Amino acid sequence: MASEPTSSDRFDGRVAIVTGGASGIGAATARLLAARGAAVVVADVQSDAAAAVAAELGRDTSAVTLDVTVPESWAAGVAHTVDRHGRVDVLVNNAGAFALGSLIDTTLETFERLISVNQVGCFLGMKSVVGQMREVGGGAIVNTASAAGLRGNAGLFAYTATKWALRGMTRTAAVELGAYGIRVNAVLPGAVDTPMTRPQGAEAPGRQEFFRSLPVPRQGQPEDIAEMICFLASDRSAYCTGAEFVVDGGLTTGAGNPPRRDVGGED
Question: Exactly one of 159, 211, 231, 245 is catalytic; which is it?
Fold first, then answer.
């Protein structure tokens, strides 16, 4: 159960841009930031869905159509944010693309598409908000990477490559932007139940059995990740930068086989 927000959890007077905010982790993050006092810009290529989320959250929230792969779209999105809300304090680089495929099966077109959304989109986002954050004396950037960026993943060649890259981008940006009071961190979700992880809308055979084998025996929910993102965007994480925060139910411990009951100790 989430704890009640304290003053250091609050975002009153602050403005946050959340990319990929129309659904999944992005929408959950926009809702939580708004609930804790932030003015939120829900940014997404899905204009109608972004507008619906913004309308749900009230007058301090707005929506903007944003293609994270296009510099001009970023410029327009940041301009909208400043014109409508006055400043930029938080950027959540959450927009992402996903594709199945091994090294042999992945086409150059697919590989470049994932690089464009997952890497270039994050690069452009960070670059686009630095000026505004410097003007207000600092800010927080949270990049959504993935637990896939911590290991090799058969059948996820392009996606894995981009998420490994985000880790290096996050650390380097933290080093370069710290002098301006800008913190940069990454969240590494495990398998979260979002539209992106169900591209065909169907439940894969054995999926739930796999999740029940994890140390936290369930699939992640968008709200699990939103809590960590909001922590990293808040003053509670004021001494955290250039770091990676894994939220995966124990997936990267090497779990994933049925738990053993004969590991020692008393029942």
Answer: 159
Handedness of CA 17, 21, 27, 28 (dihedral sign): negative
CB hemisphere CA count around 35 (13 angstroms): 15
Give 112's contacts (C-beta < 8 A, 6+ positions apart). Answer: none
* CATH level 3 topology of 9-197+204-250: Rossmann fold (3.40.50)
Q: Where are the domains of the chain?
A: 9-197+204-250
Distances from the Cα of 19 to the Cα of 92, 106, 131, 210, angstroms: 6, 26, 18, 30
Side-chain half-sphere exposure of 48, counting CA atoms within 13 A: 0
Amino acid in the structure at residue 197: T
CA 54 to chain centre: 18
Determine whether 180 is an active site residue. no
Residues 30, 17: Cα–Cα separation, whole Å: 8
| pTM for this prediction | 0.90
Dist. CA 4–CA 257, nearest whole Å: 36
Order of strands across the sheet with 139-144?
61-65, 39-44, 15-19, 90-93, 139-144, 182-189, 244-247
The identity of residue 160, as a single letter, is T
Sequential pLDDT tens for the chain (267 residues): 455 556 778 999 999 999 999 999 999 999 999 999 999 999 999 999 999 999 999 889 999 999 999 999 999 999 999 999 999 999 999 999 999 999 999 999 999 999 999 999 999 999 999 999 999 999 999 999 999 999 999 999 999 999 999 999 999 999 999 999 999 999 999 989 988 766 555 556 667 888 888 999 999 999 999 999 999 999 999 999 999 999 999 999 975 554 443 333 333
